[in-house]
Each structure stands twice: as structure tokens, then as C-alpha cells.
Amino acid sequence: MVNMEVNGTTLQIALTQSSSSEALKALLKGGALTISMKDYAHMEKFGNLGTKLPRNDKHITTKAGDVILSEGNLLVIYYAPNTWNFTKLGSVTNMTEKELKKVLGKGNITATLWLSEA
Q: How many domains does the chain have?
């Protein structure tokens, strides 16, 4: 499990089983990671991880709460559907779509990710 703090609220992300998710966990074992994330098309927030992770792209349609690796170096959290070739890293487990949209708000955000103790 990975936690992501946004605007004072912690999102809990259950990771998929893939080399991409394992690489994200390995990155976070070095400590928390803070990312500036931009809003795109009123459907997602995205930010640069500062490193490349292995890609496991599949043609998928995202749903609210999906956490995606795009282009190998961009972390994306969706709050509306989008169809493209992506690597799914996981999904937010502790919020509804409506709650997620409220927490992510409008415009750019800063997100801090860390590994859960559990």
C-alpha cells in the first residue's frame, strides 16, 4: 500500500502486482517523494517522478482513482475516464469519485507519496 497526501488528506493506494509497482515501492523505500502535479483536461493530475520506471502498458480505460504510470516517468491520478495505452500502478481505495474530485480540487496540486507501514 502507498499513501499519497494531497491538500491535507491522505489517499490510500492499493498497488497492482507488476514490475512497475515494485519499482515504485523500491523508489519510496528511499523515503517520501513530493511531486508537483498539473491538472490536465479536467480528468487527471500528472507529475514527473524524476526517474523512469519499467512500463507494462496495456490499452485500458481509466476510472476515478486509478493511479497510472505514463511514458515511464509520469505519475497520473485520474478522476474521470480516459482510454489509452497505460501502465496501471494501483487504485485509491478510501474515497469515492466525488470525494476524490473534492480533495484533488481545481488546478495544480502537490502530492507526497510514502509507503504504508501496513
A: 1
CA proximity to 96, closest of 68, 74, 63, 70: 63
Q: Write the DSSP assignment of 77-115 as a string of letters.
A: EESS--EEEEEEEEEE-S--HHHHHHHH-SS-EEEEEEE
- Please name every residue paired with 6 in a beta bridge, in sequence order, or none if there are none: 9, 111
Could you list the residue range(s) of the whole structural domain that residue 83 is in?
A: 2-115
pLDDT, tens only, 46-91: 999 999 999 999 999 999 999 999 999 999 999 999 999 999 999 9
For the domain that residue 111 is a member of, what is the CATH number? 2.40.100.20
Query: 32 near 4, Cβ under 8 Å?
Result: no
Query: pTM for this structure?
Result: 0.95
